[in-house]
UniProtKB/TrEMBL annotation:
<keyword id="KW-0808">Transferase</keyword>
<dbReference type="GO" id="GO:0019205">
    <property type="term" value="F:nucleobase-containing compound kinase activity"/>
</dbReference>
<protein>
    <recommendedName>
        <fullName>Adenylate kinase</fullName>
    </recommendedName>
</protein>
<keyword id="KW-0547">Nucleotide-binding</keyword>
<dbReference type="Pfam" id="PF00406">
    <property type="entry name" value="ADK"/>
</dbReference>
<dbReference type="InterPro" id="IPR000850">
    <property type="entry name" value="Adenylat/UMP-CMP_kin"/>
</dbReference>
<dbReference type="InterPro" id="IPR027417">
    <property type="entry name" value="P-loop_NTPase"/>
</dbReference>
<dbReference type="GO" id="GO:0006139">
    <property type="term" value="P:nucleobase-containing compound metabolic process"/>
</dbReference>
<dbReference type="Pfam" id="PF17824">
    <property type="entry name" value="DUF5586"/>
</dbReference>
<dbReference type="GO" id="GO:0005524">
    <property type="term" value="F:ATP binding"/>
</dbReference>
<keyword id="KW-0418">Kinase</keyword>
<dbReference type="InterPro" id="IPR040687">
    <property type="entry name" value="DUF5586"/>
</dbReference>
<comment type="similarity">
    <text>Belongs to the adenylate kinase family.</text>
</comment>
Length: 488
């Protein structure tokens, strides 16, 4: 019975891997949506043509900051050749479309154009030859649940949804300082009290603020945008990412471009996530594992914490492990493997999936997991130079009175002298122990990476990137397995 179960599981994993590698479910999803929309007389011929077509990116880009939104849309157009589709512009030209007569009737009565009619006009644009050949980026749409439902029902399936996050104060500082000259009949010249104020004092004295640029109006627009996103988010959550857009626009554009090239979430039916995330001592792997699990609802499993828990509970395994923990030496494989396998077999890990942090770090450990029926579907390695790893470890300090952690290289300037004087270094972070820990990692790394590379599931990441950038790189691997809400 056990052998049969393991064979079934292995077959399911192999089938799933094939579907993901060749994007089988995404392909059929796209084919069926196009078939339903187009309703061709020759469906077989139509499907053959669709299979031969080169499908381009389809991006929904949103932000309450229209200046940031426009800049990033233009960056996507320049870098990827995508067609910018602005729902507001479609609305202004809707009378020229095939649904124009019905739209015009509503406009003539002073009525808003119904969502269904607006989405029909948008669909005509998104399915145009130009958008099909180049791909598209749709700005700030949909804004309601009904619009989102209509958009998807008409086959406008995005490949990526990006929300550009900008601090409200940053937007307020830019927008509320905009001014116009009421004596300029063309309104062609726009002023900003900080960035480009007029040189003529007389012009400066008569400048006016547009009502939509007032602080109250901006705050209301932001609140409306966020409220709309809360309604729309559930339908698009599996494709959605939030990107911090407060910095340099070229850096933001590079981060959005990386998301565009990341593997899309899989539609293949498969078990919950089964990820191993490792890195050298001092890397961000523990924090990243915790962040992934907090965002996606998967279970965080730390090999080191399992050992500490066993020691604290004074279990037989814990008594054996105590000396290793205190000395900083690696615990025997059979000891830690038993703890890990037992934890991964619990119901919460089986239901919600898991991210195993800090294990396995050698080929024998990886083989032991395999022998015990544990399948790691993605093995993620955070790379860090030896000198950076040692600097991180040996610079750590802890306040023995409250357990608060510090780092000498990143010490806040306001730390009181009394606190600074009592900070202590954990025995595991002393230079000698840190070097031994790093040596153990370097000794096991080639073998464990080779093991999972042979299975086609090893992926490496530059640990010198910011925590946010690393997190963005790792998210697609979780999304590919379990479509959970990313936008919160």
């Amino acid at each position: 019975m056990v052998a049969s179960s393991m064979e079934t599981k292995a077959l399911m994993d192999a089938n799933t891997a094939y579907c993901e590698r060749h994007k089988v479910f995404q392909m059929f999803e796209g084919l069926m949506s196009r078939l339903v929309i187009e309703r061709p007389d020759d469906p077989i011929g139509f499907l053959i043509g669709e299979l031969q077509a080169d499908r381009k990116p389809r991006v929904i880009l949103g932000s309450f900051d229209t200046e940031v939104l426009a800049a990033q849309a233009e960056a996507l157009r320049s870098a990827k050749g995508l067609v910018i589709v602005d729902a507001n512009q479609v609305l202004s030209t809707i009378v020229a479309s095939s649904v124009g007569d019905e739209a015009k009737a509503h406009l003539d009565k002073g009525e808003p154009i119904p969502d269904l009619l607006l989405v029909q006009a948008l669909t005509q644009r998104l399915l145009s030859d130009e958008c099909a050949q180049r791909g598209w980026v749709l700005l700030n749409f949909p804004q309601t649940l009904e619009q989102a439902q209509h958009l998807l029902a008409m086959g406008n399936l995005p490949t990526l949804v990006v929300h550009l996050d900008v601090p409200l104060e940053q937007t307020l500082a830019r927008v509320t300082l905009r001014r116009y000259d009421p004596d300029d009949p063309t309104g062609a010249v726009a002023f900003h009290l900080e960035r480009n104020p007029p040189s003529d004092p007389a012009v400066l004295a008569r400048l006016k603020q547009r009502p939509e640029d007032s602080e109250g109006a901006v705050r209301a627009q932001v609140a409306a945008y966020e409220a709309a996103q809360r309604h729309v988010a559930p339908l698009l959550a599996s494709l959605a990412f939030r990107v911090d857009a407060s910095g340099d626009k070229l850096d933001v554009a590079a981060r959005v471009a990386r998301l565009l090239s990341a593997p899309p979430p899989s539609r293949a039916p498969r078990p919950a996530p089964a990820i191993a995330l490792v890195g050298p001592p001092g890397s961000a792997a523990p924090a990243l594992a915790a962040r992934l699990c907090a965002r996606f609802g998967t279970i965080a499993v730390s090999a080191h914490e399992l050992l500490e828990e066993a020691v604290a509970r004074r279990t037989p395994t814990g008594l054996k492990a105590k000396g290793y923990l205190e000395s900083g030496a690696p615990a025997p494989d059979e000891l830690i493997c038993a703890l890990v396998v037992d934890r991964l077999a619990r119901d919460d890990c089986r239901r919600h999936g898991w991210v195993l942090e800090g294990f396995p770090t050698s080929a024998p450990q990886a083989a032991h997991l395999s022998e015990r029926g544990v399948t790691v579907r993605d093995f993620l390695v955070v790379e860090l130079p030896d000198e950076a790893s040692l600097a991180e470890l040996t610079g750590r300090r802890v306040d023995p009175e409250n357990g608060k952690l510090y780092h000498l290289a990143r010490m806040p300037p306001a730390v009181p002298a009394a606190v600074l004087a009592r900070l202590a270094q954990h025995p595991r972070d002393t230079p000698d122990v840190a070097r031994r820990r790093l040596a153990a990692w370097n000794a096991g790394k080639p073998g464990v990476v080779a093991h999972f590379s042979g299975l086609g599931c090893a992926h490496s990441f530059d640990g010198s990137m910011s925590a946010d950038e690393l997190f963005e790189r790792l998210c697609p691997f979780v999304l590919r397995m379990d479509e959970r809400h990313l936008v919160q």
